Amino acid sequence: MVLLKSIATVGSLTMVSRLFGFVRDILIAAVLGAGMMADVFFVAFKFPNLFRRLFAEGAFNMAFVPIYAGILEEKGEAAAGEFADQALAMLLWTLLGFVIAVELAMPWAMSAFAPGFRADPEKFALAIELTRITFPYLLFISLVSLLAGVLNSLGKFAAAAATPILLNICLIGAVLGLAPLTETPGHGLAWGVFAAGIVQFIWLMSHAARNGYAISISVPQLTDNVKLLLTRALPVALGAGVYQINLLIDTIIASLLPEGSISYLFYADRVNQLPLGVVGVAVGTALLPLLSRQLRAGDGGAALHSQNRAVEFSLLLTLPAAAALMIIAEPLVVTLFQRGAFAAPEARATAAALAVYAAGLPAYVLAKALAPGFFARGDTATPVKISVFALLANLILNLLLMGPFLHVGIAAATAIASWLNVGLMAYVLHRRGHLSADARLKSRTLKTLLATIGMATALYYMGGPLVGLFEGAEIDRALALAVLVGGGLVVFAGLAQLTGAAKLSDVKGLYRGGPKAP
To answer: Is the pTM of this model over 0.70?
Structure first.
């Protein structure tokens, strides 16, 4: 398995998904704007996705993949498939009971998730109704996460990486087809989320079957491996999900702020999610099974090298992305979302949140690159302690900053807490000898910083002459944004090549076994 080739596979398909996601969000912004209906739908959409990212993609997957990959390495596909069946049974029946319980308790759950909605009975009732429609999505997408873990451990990354594209297609179809026919556009989008879970599950189930794993539903059994899975999964829910828990805290507090605050944060986070998804998810997805197998084989040197390359690759892409998002936040938001029900004031409020979220972007992605260093070694306690500390810091910062800065203060708290989280993770791994920056990582990080500063300076001066175009027609805005983005990419690519932050040989190496250590 070649790490950078695997990252490229996941990242390229995630990029396609994010582009579909932008089309989806542009349509949603035009239909819902950033008012009451948008706030309610985004809460209904976030609620199942929070549990999905914490328990399925976070806790369950981070605990499942190392065990599955280890069994696969030592005992072969048959034994690994048997463990996957046991894990699937536990996940299926547990989540089915959980979904039913939450559906029945939705008024109380919504009081905790969006307490500010209670002040408006109509808004609160609509939030309960839409979330009851979207919540079963959790069951299907969690099974999808398990199937993705199986395929990733087998070195098959493409099908799982393409799965989010189906969600975006379903929601685009819901905006264009269902929204005009349902009671409100929010109802149409909620049913689109429900349908997407079924579509994604069928898609990945068929691909798993083609690669030798056919789902077998059975009664849950507490075998030794399942017990180990549960023991590791419970604490990983915090250790792997600090970013998602921070967003949950953001949503709770934003529900207490003026109307539209939840929507501003949602749209800003969606833009910020492009590099986070393309780089962070790709790095974490490719690195965890690779580290697990290298460590199980007793090759600590190879594991350390893989960790360094993951950090290097993360910084190479996220440092310039963060700088660009901070500098062109308002032109970007205006071009993507300002139309229909989404006007200039909403664009300015969203851009302010985006610029602050972007300051934490490298930290969000580095957390994805560092977390496997704990999970591949079966250590779930340490990330929990670190994440709890970061969560408390996020909560305190939210309460301190929400008053003077409103929703922008919430974004700032998330960014600061994320840097605290990743800094502590790096410190602990380094102290244990599991993270040690080699000469190549140190050299290339410095060169990446120099190239990023050069690109940021170029973007700043390029933006001045284009200001008038962003106040004009949509075609003018799109062309001006294309000039900024294209110009920034060209400048950074040139400076990266000139300074040695990245080399063309690295790209070629993706398909020849990856770049070698210096």
So the answer is: no
